[in-house]
């Protein structure tokens, strides 16, 4: 009597052994399972765990699949390379990066409309390297924590950094090489890193209020297209030296207050506030409506800065970038353009140097 094991399409031969290539399950079981799913949809894959964590952080209530082998939230797999990092601290800057997309890249749950504006943000900045850290602490850069490697050979720079941080009340924390690499973004830290506090920017109107509280004529410096933080620090240093009441910078396409700006200012940023304007031309128009004159520093100006009669009135002095100068829309917002007479063989001056010369001349006119 014939059995069903020898029929065409069966998973076994006449002798009852599995047919080669079928695995004993028959022809239908050989059908493909479709394309390989993305990494974020494979249970147990690191990208899937990141996507699950992002969904949990965003308040998602997606039920866990029965075949989802991702560990409970707050735990890591033993074979996960990130398990050796340990728990994240509350002050860890990586904890504030926001959720991630399904492919593991950083993203926002609300799409492109929720992207942070370009330019200097409010994220903490890290200064890496022994010499840069010591110089930042000497310049009184506002810092939140000093990270020292656990297995580094101490020298006079590390000892001085720890002493300066302790005298200023900055927390001194130990960190392993892997954590220092992560905090500094892979920079050459030499076992030393300093976390700088985000700068608290003022509003452009606060600078007028500061002048009114001091009973003085407003003198404000605005920077248009200046992208080097060291120039911003140099301008703040000149502003403090010649009695200016603050510096205005644009939120986009302009330098912000970073550790480099603090070092270049030699501590002047602690005395001169920096305001950030979403639209610099609109901020200048607001100053004009408040009765403040706006003078742009431009090589094509008709009036030498030493002959600026508006210096004895409330004044905003606008400084452009070294190469491009003032933008068209900012030039239109100025009441007049002034220039610094220079030799013909010199094309332009550094923005920080030009601001220092112009502020000195304005202070001299006011003194007369």
Give an overview in words.
About 30% of the residues lie in helices and about 15% in strands. The protein has helices spanning about 45-55, 130-140, 155-165, 175-185, 205-215, 230-240, 260-265, 280-290, 330, 350-365; strands at about 125-130, 145-150, 170-175, 190-195, 220-225, 245-250, 275, 295, 305, 315-320, 335-340. The chain has ten helices and eleven strands. It has about 375 residues and is an alpha/beta fold. It starts with about 45 loop residues before the first helix and ends with a helix. Helix 6 links the parallel strand 5 (about 220-225) and strand 6. The strands form two sheets. It has a seven-stranded parallel beta sheet, sandwiched between helices. Strands 1-4-2-3 form a four-stranded mixed beta sheet.
How is the topology of this model organized?
Layout: H1 46-57, E1 125-128, H2 130-138, E2 143-149, H3 156-167, E3 171-175, H4 177-183, E4 192-196, H5 204-214, E5 219-224, H6 229-241, E6 246-250, H7 259-265, E7 274-277, H8 280-289, E8 293-297, E9 303-304, E10 315-320, H9 328-332, E11 336-339, H10 351-367
Parallel strand pairs: 2-3, 5-6, 5-10, 6-7, 8-10, 8-11, 9-11
Antiparallel strand pairs: 1-4, 2-4
Helix pairs in contact: 2-3, 6-7, 6-10
